[in-house]
């Protein structure tokens, strides 16, 4: 196959590209220039897609012996990821920019261009697996190493995208093995630190970054009764489940910590309360998709597991597609309450190791008023 290997400049994508070449594919490496400041340099493990990363990717491509190109996707990245991130915070939601980047850049814009140029697949260094079922359908599954599994951030992939994706690291038992392989191949990135935090906020100061773009306006902090108990410097700086940085100045009546329960951007207020009030019995989203073949009848409730963060444990749940107030939603009812769920987060649905689909959370239902879900059979998939 003719394979386009997305090379970020890190160890994972370098080894993935090398394995694709070793498997006999015709491989071309490409680095996505996403920063609008091409002279930006990486700082330790913060940031990615910098000029330094581009040079690291080129060195790896040269050692593998494959052609290498840099494609400028900075404008689309700004529109589809950075601007979306700002807009979501302005709406009082908590976005996941890595999900948007995978959805709109790496497996939409990149794959679209790759197919137009005659490539059969895009290979990346994600830790996830693609399994072909007995009918020949491709499914997205967790990686062999659950500690490194990245299938959550790939939950936005569609059937068509999975059909043209390749994850050479999916069966690798550990990151240490990948680093050892990179060292054996002579890659200079063998011990390069993993990137973390938000790539376009390399100093990690999300609050300050948002304040520069959204503006900081003082507002009120309310308790659950609506009483004003403090003031803040801008609602955009808070997210549901947050404990630190409230600066209320006096303890709660029971002496227990307060947590952010709700962010209301329209009136610039933040609602706080006890940790127990964060327990959520139902989540739902009208923006949802299936990663591969969908259930035969998704309106029939089915058993599954739901994961609401990249490194969270999956929770047993019941899901269904339902029409609520004229909107078609994926509704997920966990068998035990989820804690600290914020609108804007992504809920990824699994059946066993298979990624079944995902939704962006629009609304939640408090565990204080919701009944426990009944047992139902697993659907036909």
Automatic annotation (TrEMBL):
Annotated segments matching region Interaction with tRNA: 148-150
Every tRNA-specific 2-thiouridylase MnmA-like central domain range: 209-273
One matching Pfam family: tRNA_Me_trans
UniProt-listed SUPFAM superfamilies: Adenine nucleotide alpha hydrolases-like (SSF52402)
Active-site residue numbers: 101, 199
Recorded superkingdom: Bacteria
Positions with a binding annotation for ATP: 6-13, 32, 125
Keywords: ATP-binding, Cytoplasm, Disulfide bond, Nucleotide-binding, RNA-binding, Transferase, tRNA processing, tRNA-binding
EC number: 2.8.1.13
Main location class: cytoplasm
Site (Interaction with tRNA): 126, 345
Top EC group: transferase
Every tRNA-specific 2-thiouridylase MnmA-like C-terminal domain range: 283-361
Catalytic activity: S-sulfanyl-L-cysteinyl-[protein] + uridine(34) in tRNA + AH2 + ATP = 2-thiouridine(34) in tRNA + L-cysteinyl-[protein] + A + AMP + diphosphate + H(+)
Subcellular localization(s) per the UniProt record: Cytoplasm
Family statement: Belongs to the MnmA/TRMU family.
Database matches in NCBIfam families: PRK00143.1, trmU
Protein's job: Catalyzes the 2-thiolation of uridine at the wobble position (U34) of tRNA, leading to the formation of s(2)U34.
Record HAMAP family: tRNA_thiouridyl_MnmA
The protein's name: tRNA-specific 2-thiouridylase MnmA
Name of the coding gene: mnmA
């Amino acid at each position: 196959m003719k394979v386009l290997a997305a090379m970020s400049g890190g160890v994972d994508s370098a080894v993935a590209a090398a394995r694709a070449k070793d498997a006999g594919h015709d491989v071309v490496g490409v680095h996505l220039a996403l920063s609008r400041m091409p002279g930006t340099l990486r700082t330790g493990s913060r940031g990615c897609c910098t000029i330094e990363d581009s040079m690291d990717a080129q060195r790896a491509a040269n050692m593998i012996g494959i052609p290498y190109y840099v494609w400028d996707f900075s404008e689309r990245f700004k529109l589809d990821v950075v601007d979306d991130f700002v807009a979501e915070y302005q709406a009082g939601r908590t976005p996941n920019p890595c999900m948007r980047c995978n959805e709109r850049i790496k497996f939409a814009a990149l794959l679209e261009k790759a197919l137009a140029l005659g490539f059969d697949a895009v290979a990346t260094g994600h830790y996830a697996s693609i399994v072909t079922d007995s009918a020949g359908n491709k499914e997205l599954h967790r990686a062999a190493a659950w500690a490194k599994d990245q299938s959550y951030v790939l939950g936005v992939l569609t059937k068509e995208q999975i059909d043209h994706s390749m994850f050479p690291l999916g069966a690798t038992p550990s990151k240490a093995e990948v680093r050892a392989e990179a060292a054996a191949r002579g890659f200079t990135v063998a011990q390069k630190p993993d990137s973390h935090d938000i790539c376009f906020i390399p100093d990690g100061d999300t609050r300050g970054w948002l304040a520069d773009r959204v503006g900081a306006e003082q507002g009120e902090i309310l308790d659950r009764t609506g009483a004003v108990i403090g003031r803040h410097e801008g609602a955009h700086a808070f997210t549901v489940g947050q404990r630190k940085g409230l600066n209320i100045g006096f303890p709660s009546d029971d002496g227990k910590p307060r947590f952010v329960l709700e962010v209301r951007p329209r009136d610039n207020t933040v609602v706080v309360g006890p940790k127990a009030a964060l327990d959520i019995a139902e989540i739902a989203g009208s923006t949802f998709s299936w990663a591969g073949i969908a259930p035969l009848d998704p309106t029939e409730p089915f058993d599954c597991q739901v994961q609401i963060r990249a490194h969270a444990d999956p929770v047993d749940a019941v899901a269904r597609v339902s029409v609520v107030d004229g909107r078609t939603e994926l509704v997920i009812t966990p068998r035990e309450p989820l804690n600290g769920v914020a609108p804007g987060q992504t809920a990824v649905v699994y059946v066993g190791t298979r990624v079944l689909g995902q939704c962006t959370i629009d609304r939640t239902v408090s565990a204080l008023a919701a009944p426990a879900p009944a047992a139902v059979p697993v659907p036909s998939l």
